[in-house]
Design brief:
Strand 14 and strand 15 form a beta hairpin. The chain is about 30% helix and about 25% strand. The chain is built from 9 helices and 15 strands. The structure holds 4'-deoxy-4'-aminopyridoxal-5'-phosphate.
Amino acid sequence: MTERQLSNERVVWLNGEIVPESQATVHIHDRGFLYGDAVFDTARTFGGRIYRLQEHIDRLMRSLRYLRIDPGMSAEEIARVSEEVVERNRHLLGEHEDYWVFQRITRGSAFPDGPGQRSGPTVIVLCVPLPFGVRAPLFRDGIEVVIPSTRRVAPDAVSPNAKTHNYLNFVVAAQEVGAGGGWPVLLDHRGFLCEGNGSNIFLVRDGVVMTPQEQFVLAGISRKVVMELCEKLGIPCRETDLTAYDVATADEAFITSTSLCMCPVRSFDGESTAVTDIPGPVTKRLMDAYAEEVGHDFVGQYLAHLTDDAKGGTGL
Ligand code: PMP
């Protein structure tokens, strides 16, 4: 890489060009902006290297197929661009930092034949530092889950399996819970536990790990990592409908997401789980195995960012 390419501002890939983030703009007629007519995916780096990029790109391609958007690029090209964006921004990472890596693809302009409009999709690949500081207390204290009245969108309305730009369902839930009011985990349209803002939920009871079925949630890559680790460690893991009874009788619970990896839950609607150690024994065993799997002490990384006044963030 030459001197000229090393910018002191992050750069993004926008429709085939690398541009400084401050100059990367999307048109007012873009359907991603007008209608949420777009898909995205989000990977993260560990020690500067993107984890399971191929699985994120595969999910992105499935989301695109669901919305019938042609990205005009192959999965391999999107993966290559994702690596390039991280490479070009790597020198801007601070100590104990890592990147969130986003691919975003919209259907493009609502008026592709209009003056100054481009035809075809809008393709963006960018990275931003993970929010370690704001989320560090979650690893010290555990997540306070709140179950709002707002339900997760039903699979026969918009499939939760696709990662689309329409997160209003989660935004409304987060607004309902209020700033600083805990981490929303929504019920599905039938009233069973579903998923959180950008995260999947797991309960542990009598040594059995349980999580909602895939047809009602986004199939998280970190959710899959946990299921693989359960298999490897001989911990029973079930995909099943989870009721208010299951929540009330859970010994432990945890959240998974690309950014958090695994984070213990302390309480649901203000009531502590039966095991009050953070993390509980099964959660801890899985978190240790997760760190080994990704080759990175993600808990230590979060805790390195802990400050005296940090309060803990919510999903969105
Ligand atoms: N559910 C939703 C709705 C999400 O947006 C995410 C974040 N991608 C997840 C679950 C967790 O998925 P992953 O483990 O792949 O980050």
